[in-house]
UniProtKB/TrEMBL annotation:
CC per GO annotation: cytosol
Any Pfam family: TENA_THI-4
Domain Thiaminase-2/PQQC intervals: 33-225
Protein name (Swiss-Prot/TrEMBL): Aminopyrimidine aminohydrolase
Source organism per UniProt: Methylobacterium tardum
Amino acid sequence: MALAMTGDGGPGSFSGEAWTRNAAACDIIGAMPFNAELAAGTLPRETFQHYIVQDAHYLIGFGRALSLAAAKAPEPDGIVQFSRAAQDAIVVERALHGGFFRDYGIGPESFAATPLTPACDHYVSYLLATAYAEPFEVVCAALLPCFWIYKAVGDDIFARAAAGNPYRAWIDTYAGEEFAEAVAGMIAATDRAALTASAGTRERMHRAFTQATRLEWMFWDSAYRDAGWPV
């Protein structure tokens, strides 16, 4: 099953090149059992509950990484864009998780007491390390897959979701117009950053995009298998 590319900066753009380089991995993500069962509405409740708790933990780290990107943005518009994205990661998407948390009886104490899984910890640590240590261009490339792949998966699932799907709120969020605008803005910001990047920096951007794409796969795979720490 091929995930549709939801937009890029055109021929020769960094985003177009990055999606092409990682198209096979994105297609694997689209066909993962987690996403197939989520679309069908047959994903076990406990599996989605495990995922949504880890995703809420992830979004805290993601918001911090976006805030660091805002601090490194070379232009005022970039500062505003990434600061708003950080706010949305914490406030807007947390509202989505909060609805499921209420349905599942997950309170603040039980959430805080749930440790990050190896996959979640790895992903958050990678983004934060990149946001601290790498230049703005590479940070953008590392952050982009979370936006873009979620949009592609959301659109794909929306197109084939079963009627009465219990995960409709999740599907509608990531297939929605508001999220589409945020994704388009992130693609454009990354492409702008790549325009003035050296060949070496651009290749580091590609490595960061690929690594984050791998970690997207790991996150969903871990959630499906309920993979925790072995010791």
